[in-house]
Amino acid sequence: MIMATGKVICVGLGPGDPDLMSVRADRLVRTARHVAYFRKAGHPGQARQIVEGRLDPQAIEYPMEYPVTTEIPFDSPEYRSLLAGFYDTWAARLADLAKAQEVVVLCEGDPFFYGSFMHLHARLQGRAAVEVVPGITGMSGCWTATGIPITWGDDVLTVLTATLPEAELAARARGTDALVVMKIGRNLPKLRRALQAAGRLEQAWIVERGTMPGQRVQRLAEADDVTPYFSIVIVHGQGRRP
Predict the structure, then answer these.
(1) Residue 10 in 3-state DSSP?
(2) What residues have CB less than 8 Å from 198, skipping those under 6 apart?
(3) What is the pLDDT averaged over residues 7-14?
């Protein structure tokens, strides 16, 4: 049984533009007294930057700094061990804080769509009351930035992560109508090859920093100088239309 007067509230902040936060998310952010957010050590954190100027000056902040990001392979035992310990520690801290007050956790996009909060959510079950406020996804912001509908009629949309093996990326890209590829990072060259093999490279767009300052929208085949971390690749469906 959860014996607490507070709770953990994860707030989806949307794709990056503060104006795309929901009314509920904005209200919770502005009234929060305890605010936690993920960030890489030495960096302000994207979620924290989205709410700049919106937090109460008296709010207590809890930067949750990843012990590792891209320094070692994500599928290595060391990576998994470090991240598991990180999430265990912060779940315990948040559960303890939630015994007496509400703690708002900031999350880019939608918390339940590839969000880091999911790992805390699983660990908080039975330990604290948890509420999740959905947000506009990063991919929604990116396909809207292209000015082209992502799906038509009965198009099938597939969402992939570029961390998949090259052959699987190619097979799935070949077998769908519309495509979104997340988590690009250092996998961009592999993704290009996979889309080329699937015959989809000429249809692909890459959106960097969608809805954020410095947004750039290009055809992937023509894109050279790309910052892949805040990038999503889009292939639009061409299905049934009236």
Answers:
(1) strand
(2) 169, 170, 171, 173, 174
(3) 98
Q: Reply yes or no on whether the pLDDT at 3 is more than 80.
A: no
**Token digits for 150?**
């992502």
CA angle in degrees (0–180, nearest 5) for 198-156-219: 50
Global pTM reads 0.91
Q: What is the Cα Rg of the chain in Å?
A: 19
Nearest of 80, 97, 108 to residue 18 by alpha carbon: 108
The span from the CA of 94 to the CA of 71, in Å, is 27
Q: What is the pLDDT of residue 74?
A: 66
Asked if 114 contacts 182 with a C-beta cutoff of 8 angstroms, the reply is yes
The helix/strand/coil state of 154 is: coil
Positive or negative torsion for Cα 18, 23, 28, 31: positive
Above 70 in pLDDT, residue 72? no
Q: Which of 41, 10, 5 is nearest to 124 (CA)?
A: 10
User: Which residues, 6 or more positions from 86, have their beta carbon under 8 angstroms from its beta carbon?
Assistant: 64, 66, 67
Q: Is 196 exposed, middle or buried (0-12, 13-18, 19+ CB in 10 A)?
A: middle
Mean pLDDT is highest, among 68-72, 79-83, 107-111, 225-229, for 107-111
126: number of Cβ within 10 Å:
8
